[in-house]
Amino acid sequence: MSQLDIVSCPCCESGQTILSNIEKTYVVRPLGLSVTYQYRNCGVCGFFFVANPLSQTDLENYYVRSETYRAVADVDPIELAVFADQARFVARRRNLAGATVLEIGCDTAQFLDFIAQQYGAVTYFDEKSETARRIISDKKIHRNAEDEPEERFDIVVMRHVFEHIVLPADYLKSLHHRLRPSGSIFIEVPDWTYLDDDTDSIIFEHVNQFTVSAMALLLDRCGFVVRQTEMARTPGYHTTPNHVLRVEAAPKGWWPRETRLDRLRQNYQRVYGGVYAVVRQLLEELPRPRIGIYAASWIAQDVIANLKLSNADISDVFDGDPRKWGTEFLGFPVKRPEDIVKQPPDVVLILSTYQVDICRRLDELGYVGRRVLYSDIAAGQ
């Protein structure tokens, strides 16, 4: 048996880690040895990890020989509730019906039972424990991933497994070849972001303790984009009644790091470009435009400031909030809605998310001119 010596942070690669002065000795009966672990903490991302763990090979040998009691048993209501929450989380971004799902370290595959029965997922398992593998095989529901080494999956699941991985970056990178191009991973780990009485305790099997920031940095470094996160807690759940962190992430092979700026520019153009273009077009269409803006909102502020609009472009600004009447909005006096029919503008540019209510008010006032809605111009219409 050998122990590693890890100094730099396995998540963010920072060298700013310090020994915590926490040291624990564990009796590891399946391997017939006693091991003393020292723990380090990263000052950058908060990751807390074993500085001198056993090698991954030794730990996997430990799990193969694990003495943890396993038996075929009914799932209790608390477990069912947790499975439902975990499946719901994944299903927000992934359609589980017909999806190929691999769970790594699935124990007796009760979660796989749940998503196969409730969602119609096609399920595969990767489990080290010989006892658990026999129980799974007897069910004749799930496929053994070892039998189909070339299979690529829609979803790879690691529920309370990732904290057991000695070198998490290497392991994450190895998952890319197990995913389809459109695939994703679901990870649930004990959450050490906020430390209180409901934070998991230190145990031999948990060589890593993740914070939200550590997990995000690690996934980014290993070629994944975090698409959703969730913090949860289920008192009475035997796996952990304490804080957990759930993360769903997708490979960013379709999104190389060097194109990130291009995508940021595309996002900016999608959100704002259409709005600015429509306003410019209105100004060109009307030789002496009488364009009114409703309301004195942050959207109107954005449009006026970025297009450098003046009284030559905008005739009036209207708002339904009495507190704004008579005040100045970027050089324009804010008028009452009733004023809109006294000298009706040719076009009312409705720059508010309350556009339905505003249109109703315009109908009540009898305004029959052209209306341009923010939702339409934001969508490029």
Task: Present the secondary structure layout.
Layout: E1 17-28, E2 33-42, E3 48-50, H1 56-64, H2 77-91, E4 100-104, H3 110-119, E5 122-126, H4 130-139, E6 143-144, E7 153-159, H5 168-175, E8 179-190, E9 208-209, H6 212-221, E10 224-232, E11 244-251, H7 260-285, E12 291-294, H8 298-307, E13 314-318, E14 328-329, E15 332-335, E16 347-350, H9 355-365, E17 370-373, H10 374-378
Fold and architecture overview:
The protein folds into two domains: 70-255, Vaccinia Virus protein VP39 (Rossmann fold), CATH 3.40.50; 264-378, Rossmann fold (3-Layer(aba) Sandwich). The mean pLDDT is 91. It has helices at 56-64, 77-91, 110-119, 130-139, 168-175, 212-221, 260-285, 298-307, 355-365, 374-378; strands at 17-28, 33-42, 48-50, 100-104, 122-126, 143-144, 153-159, 179-190, 208-209, 224-232, 244-251, 291-294, 314-318, 328-329, 332-335, 347-350, 370-373. The longest helix is centred in the C-terminal third of the chain and has 26 residues, at 260-285. The chain has ten helices and 17 strands. The chain is of the alpha/beta class.
